[in-house]
Amino acid sequence: MARGRLSRALQLAWLDSSDTLRPPGFDVMLLIVSAVGGALAAVQPLSDPVGAANAVLDPVGVFAVSLYLAMRVSSGVALLASTGLLQLYLAYPLSRLEVAGALLASRVLVPVATLAGAPLLVAALVVPGAVSGGLGLYVAQYLAYVVYLSFFGVTFALIAVASKSPGTSSAGSLAFFMLYSGLYVILSIAAVSLGSATLRRLAEAMLFYRVTGDMLSGLSVEWWQPLLVPGLLAVSLAAYLAYMWRRFEPP
Q: Is the pLDDT of residue 88 over 90?
């Protein structure tokens, strides 16, 4: 029984991913981030896996993938809600939570994992010497980017199902990303101006992949820093699932 429900959820995710990955859009973004990642790897002196991953994805890759999630993925989820297609998904022999999970897999996890992984794969081919000696560290840093970007993706999905409007969801998602980025900049500037170690650590914690990179490189971090973004992701995920389970109604 459980295996059958999992199979149906995977089928739904596969069906929905055909829209998520539909050209033009995803293929163009995939080509752009891969080409930029390869170029950045080729022009920089890279010697360690963590530094190679950061050189490829930080900040250009992170910005590009976040922008794609805000504009294409968020509006796609809102379009499902506004046209009634999401209601058809909910009529599938699955619970609301299972449908919500399938949507996250197809609309967030697949694009994030692919768009973040492609430039790292290209970089590994361009500078294999910087990666081969620490492939585990390279993969761990990749997963840190997936967690960070998934936080935005899940939050954007929540905005989309709540607004049920493609335009509103894209604008709201973009505004959230800019607000988060702006808060990081403000905290960083305030930390330098005030000489505050607490503000500096808080700003560092907002970029989960940098904290992870420091840990993988053997640098010391505060115990709470690696927990901030995963905690925010958990809150966004809980809010999204709760909304889909209790509050979502077709327009």
A: no
Name the pLDDT band for 72 (thresholds 50, 70, 90).
confident
The distance in angstroms from the start CA to the end CA of the chain is 33
Q: Which amino acid is at 48?
A: D
> What gap in Å lies between CA 5 and CA 9, rounded to an integer?
6
Q: 19-23: long-range contacts (C-beta < 8 A, 24 or more apart)?
A: 19/76, 20/73, 20/76, 20/106, 20/107, 20/110, 20/111, 21/110, 21/111
How confident is the prediction for the chain on average, in pLDDT?
Answer: 91
Local structure of 36: helix, strand or coil: helix
Joined together, the tokens standing for residue 184 give: 């990081």
Q: Is pLDDT of 3 > 80?
A: no
pLDDT number for residue 24: 77
Q: Residue 146: name the closest of 112, 115, 180 by CA.
A: 112
Structure tokens at 173: 């998602």
Task: Tell me how long the chain is.
Answer: 251
